[in-house]
Records
---
Amino acid sequence: MQYIKLTKSDAFSKKLSQRVDEYLKTNNLKKYGNWRILLKVPLMFSVYLLPYFLMIFGVIDNAWAMLLFTGIMGIGMAGIGLSIMHDANHGSFSRYKWVNSAMSFSMEILGGNSTNWRIQHNVLHHSFTNVHDMDEDIAPVGVLRFSPNEPRKKMHRFQVFYAWFFYGLMTLSWMTNKDFMQLVRYHKNGLLKSQNTSLGKSLSYLIVSKIAYYVYIALIPMLVMDIAWWQWLIGFFTMHFVCGSILAFVFQIAHVMPETEFLTKETYDDKNEEISWAKHQMMTTANFSRWNPAFTWYVGGLNYQIEHHLFPDISHIHYPKISRIVRKTAQEFGVTYHYHRTFGGAIIQHLRLLHQLGKA
């Protein structure tokens, strides 16, 4: 399989890059994160790990309280992925590669695999945003239809009602079968080479990291806590369902929206001769809830998804300011800037598109 990328530059791309570079230089800013992102590490990991240890050491032993705490762990789990792991795997968390590598390991702590994530997200999603059969983010299990280029099944007419349930299963899929299936597929497609690794090395690492994850998340709680296996299973499911729901809605409303464009491989190749990569990102991406600093802090600036797709190597702490430059430049060049004022409003529009895709 051949993987290409829109590389053509134009006046819009050049002016935008020039202005962002000038902004960073004028304000003596580095494109990486600073103390603000470092502060998130202890805070986000505390939300995830503190409930875990309170339950492990018996401080919290009430069944309903433990269920609540597993939900809080899910919130922390999503926060780590959005605010720490994401920047680290893009190489924008820190100017030091070893720090980025250490922070990207948070993916393994949460039960996932950073190698697979970088291929799916950095290589495929960012290069081929909303391109059918290229961007795996719009190619979920067959019960969901995210693109008009996907075949429609009868069950899709009801997807607006059941999609949220499958969103909640997203990280559970990572923990079990998806990472193994992706690793084999990426090996066959020659994509492991982009991460300077091999199937044998990656598979060994994946197996060891999975074992370590299930030791601390399953074996230790079952040994030291006075709970039945089914109580652990409910808690484990709750944690992942909360995390998966948060992650899915944050990412889906950035691309699977009524106003964003969806391309096939053929139309993508045609546009390779017509538009720049920057304009492609503008066409296929939407922002939401820019006005809410608390929300921006928690989701790691991914409500500024346009800025992230245009400048993935710049830390999310700079997106609110860069957004002003992007909006101004887009207006000058007549490039559409997709935006929804609220998170809830964006979700409604996303569900509306799911309903439309389910019918037609």
Note: The chain has a mean pLDDT of 93.
---
Amino acid sequence: MTTAILPGCEPFEAAGGDTGVLVLHGFTGNPTSMRPLAEFLAGDGFTVSLPRLPGHGTSVADMMTTGWPDWTGAALDAFDDLAGRTARVAVVGLSMGGGLSAFVAQRRDVGALVLINPLVKPPAPEMIDGLNQLLEAGLETIDAIGSDVKRDGVTELAYDATPLACARSLFEGVGDVYESLGDIVAPSLLLSSREDHVVTADNGDDLVARVRGPIERIWLENSYHVATIDNDQALVQTLTRDFIRKVVAA
């Protein structure tokens, strides 16, 4: 039985010019957190694809049937589809979407990367041990991690619980991404919120230290983790557009 997509969580596609932009959302989130950015880029003439990652935007139970191989597979499929329709493809990702963007850049010829508070580093071993202990004790979910937003009146439409088995799969996959950060040669823009309650700043620090391609880091001073719908939304949009224009669509 197919689980129904929650209203507003549908994927987004827009046909445009010969520069494609793949936009990837975060863990337990869905396309709503990235849709304003995707629509902004589409309005500027880019060909845009914002997929709904497997298990997201439906139900927590649905998500619990998926894991890192499903999410990376969907990201690669979406990239390959865009690459077949455009001359060059940039990849933009938030949080886990940033980790997926790095994964794609390690395996495909990516024109540019824009990473917004990306998760590219597994947590400390003691946290993994604690997660495994919870799973062994039979606990399937913990409190939600979504909607870390500073802007008044804005709430991210994310799941109200975090599936632990999915989190373990995510951390295992991100561990492999982290070990291969040196394989990333695409020009990259890293947007880091000064205050982020979900992803630690050392994720960005290690990106800057490890990637081989040129990377520019800009700090966001007025947003928490989900900066794409936070106080710096307009800034994130213009910085992303201008970087892709400069690097790919020049």
Note: The chain has eight helices and nine strands.
